[in-house]
Recover the amino acids of this structure.
């Protein structure tokens, strides 16, 4: 996920404006994570989630 996508996902999930910290996090993750190991699904018992999915599900913890 590119920084702009992460910022939009974070802002949408948190109900606010885009945050430079969220954008920077997305930029860093986009460069570092290019694929997810199949081990993630085996360990969790479900497919991995995107940052946008995580942000939407956890928005209440940040309000």
């Amino acid at each position: 996920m590119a920084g702009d996508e992460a910022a939009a996902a974070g802002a949408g999930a948190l109900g606010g404006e885009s945050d430079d910290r969220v954008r920077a996090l997305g930029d860093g993750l986009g460069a570092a994570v290019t694929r997810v190991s199949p081990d993630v699904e085996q360990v969790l018992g479900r497919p991995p989630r995107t940052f946008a999915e995580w942000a939407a599900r956890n928005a209440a913890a940040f309000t």
